[in-house]
Amino acid sequence: MTEINPLLLTGGVIGAITAILVAAYALVKDKKATMGFERTMNDGEIMRRLMAYAKPYRKQFVVVLFLMLFSIAYDIISPLIVGNIEELVATDFALPALYGRVAVYAGVLLFSMASTYLQAVILQRVGQRIVSDLREDLFIHIESLSHEQ
């Protein structure tokens, strides 16, 4: 029996799934009009209207941006710190120097974890508030309609 390269197998599975999804999209794309799926607004207009709901939360998005930059910096710095620790271990080293470098790595790791956690919490809260604002506006709009509608 011949051996199958795992990368080729994974690529084949991903390619097959992609082909199925593309075929399904092609079948549904033409049937949107017959299913009653007509959109009168273009994508730019929809995004502009949705961004109006995100506008009051700009400060939170800026905070998340900075937290994201810290997470990216950790991803860049982490291999450098580990490489520095490996170089120290490969040569004659003093135990206090190793403790210091491991402590720096642990501190950077904890800061990155806290940054990622805060990022997730802030985005979830802001997302829930935006959805709540949308629901409130929809409710107000529905209440303003006449009973016949």
Explain this structure.
The chain has 149 residues and is mainly α. The protein has two domains: 38 residues; 103 residues. It has four helices and no strands. The termini are far apart.
Keyword list:
single chain; 149 residues; mainly alpha
Short description:
This protein has 149 residues and is mainly α. It contains four helices and no strands.
The helix content, as a percent range, equals over 70%
Specify Rg, calculated over alpha carbons: 26 Å
Mean pLDDT reading = 88
Order of helices and strands: HHHH
Q: Note the overall shape.
A: flat
Separate helix tally: 4
Question: Class by helix and strand content?
Answer: mainly alpha
**Sheet with most strands:** none
Low-confidence regions: none
- Cα(first) to Cα(last) distance is 69 Å
Give the topology, please.
Layout: H1 6-29, H2 43-54, H3 58-90, H4 95-144
Helix pairs in contact: 3-4
